[in-house]
């Protein structure tokens, strides 16, 4: 089904309208029901009431969609008291709160997670069943809010889950994009086609518009000097920022946190504050702009493009969030004592996207609340911390000062001042003039957001040990030399509730039975207790059965949704992540083609060949031509390989259409071999590697990002390592000659030549010319240099897989030793190293 770009505007009386005027808590006006005491019968009554009151249907009339909304409403009601109480306790201010500022949240579906955290999951399940519905089918109705691109957005979602589970007083702030990450389709030639993702087309029972906390955000205009010599910004346009609140239920903490996503709306009348006639047209234009600000998520995630609308988005949500936090902690106060602000809330900047918040807080402190520059800067510095998520120079945000000056003239002024202050401070710390020049926040008409965040916040962290080290050694070296104590590492993590308990109920049950309790779900290091069963044939058998059943389920799902058949007895070899050259999907593909050639030529015996299903899932940025060409090629290799009878179905390639959180939850538990094969020094962390390890897949990977730490923990013998190290890459850089590898390795040459011959393009040698030429002549991420080692390790993997018990043992040891990679631990590290705060009492 395709959704038209200009989706229908919300009809009056639609679900979302109803939610705006009648919050779900009011659906059932009956006596108050305490969530954990509710009986199955009461739940059934509540669901029937919700069907009647919010959908206007009887149980007999209800379909899965009605049921989805009704169950969601009831589960929300169960969580409402804890939500309110958590908010009240957060605002008491006894424990410093955390404000997580992120332009992306890749949430995944809400209902299964809310049921899990409702306190009464079995009763909900039973109630739905007794009403004659299949809960899985009901849950399948939900469209996931795809409000993010990849790792960074999913990490934000894992973090708010852990914040709630650890009872940390926190608010996640972000943007309610009307259109999330595009829905990916493949056309008949295998090309990616982007379709708009109008995820709200049926409304969402999980969001609640909160007009009481609406804010105003200005943009454009001029800065004037007032009579008393103060600078004052007169914005040309004002936008309404409407918060939509989402519950973030903690697991077994009795706490429900808040995710507050901002949506832009036009003000009814535009302010003609500074206008003369000629600016009138611009003022009117502001009206139309308003709603476009939060209309769409930018689908680029690796190359910075200085788009004005993107800066508008960034400022819009940063400014609204700051205004919200100030009014939350100083309600009704016109002259709050802002020197206490950093004791009330600490803001984490998720990459540079919200870094403009720094200039906004300075503006408020100086222009609105009357603080002097030094006091304002000290408050600001104590308020913010910054996480960097990349090492690619092309991903660092550097705004054109002219553009920023037109949109945010006062902020640019302030940034200029911070830039001067920074240079001064660096000199005081003994930096050379050259180093000071290199560290300039604002120079040559450009504003470097990472530098601003580094100088105007307290801490800077990378997202894995290696990444944090490389930040200090390369990307932010000058700063690290000068301010070493600012820099720290917080290795990423993932929530085991979603990626183990919900995604892999079979393995969860086995773990719970084996360990004797479910405590591991919020104390993941307890998985260590599985280690002693690694040589227990009974346990290994059960572990292998779980994996096999998951593979059968995945194969069924694939057949149902994409019409593709795969063999659950083959090895499932998976590479799921955004499509980018540095991640090297191309190298995986060359290996597949080389295998194909060997099988066809008889160099490899088809009879002894370990059957493999190679699974890809990846979206490419719409403007990234090489990535899109790679997608096309993967699809066409799949077409040729899968239809070649000579292979007897023993090698299959599948490309999951529209890879997202929901499909990740299906693929990961079914995977035998996980591919983490980026060029060393390029992947900041990776987080799917952690999800795979927890779920008992074995990883083949380079020494990059969090792979390093995963291997250390699960043991070198349970991880297939290959490829150049960061030092090798550095040595090769500058005199790298990919052609020499091409010419000297027959497998490699055979694979590239096969592509160039037109084998995967119906005989047309031109279709993939740019792909092959790029590899032979440039190969910016050195896939050719690592190819031979990659082929060899894959042979070892094939041999290892033959011994099923030994393979299963490796999987068990991956699960048993990956407890460190829970996002609960990441959050604890942030609390200890960055935020210096703690938890509320847990209300079980
Ligand atoms: C970056 C950019 C840069 C250009 C402008 C648009 C834009 C939009 C999003 C992003 C985010 C890219 C950074 C990112 O996703 N990094 C990933 O973060 C994960 C969580 O820390 C980490 O596991 C991955 O290794 C890292 O690539």
Low-pLDDT segments: 1-32
Rough outline? globular
Name of the CATH superfamily of the largest domain: Glycogen Phosphorylase B
Ligand species: ligand 26V
Name of the CATH class of the largest domain:
Alpha Beta
Distance between the termini: 44 Å
Q: What integer is the average pLDDT? A: 94
- Quaternary assembly: single chain
The secondary-structure class comes to alpha/beta
Helix segment count? 33
Structure explained in plain terms:
- By secondary structure, the protein is an alpha/beta fold.
- The protein has two domains: 100-108 and 144-492 and 828-835, Glycogen Phosphorylase B (Rossmann fold, 3-Layer(aba) Sandwich), CATH 3.40.50; 565-817, Rossmann fold (3-Layer(aba) Sandwich), CATH 3.40.50.2000.
- It is built from 33 helices and 25 strands.
- The strands form six sheets. Strands 1, 4, 7, 8, 11, 12, 13, 14, 18 and 19 form a ten-stranded mixed beta sheet that branches. A six-stranded parallel beta sheet has the order 22-21-20-23-24-25, sandwiched between helices.
- The longest helix is centred in the first third of the chain and has 29 residues, at 64-92.
- The protein is globular.
- Residues 1-32 have low confidence and may be disordered.
- Residues 149-152, 155, 298, 300-301, 303-304, 351, 389-390, 395, 463, 492, 683-687, 705 line the site of ligand 26V.
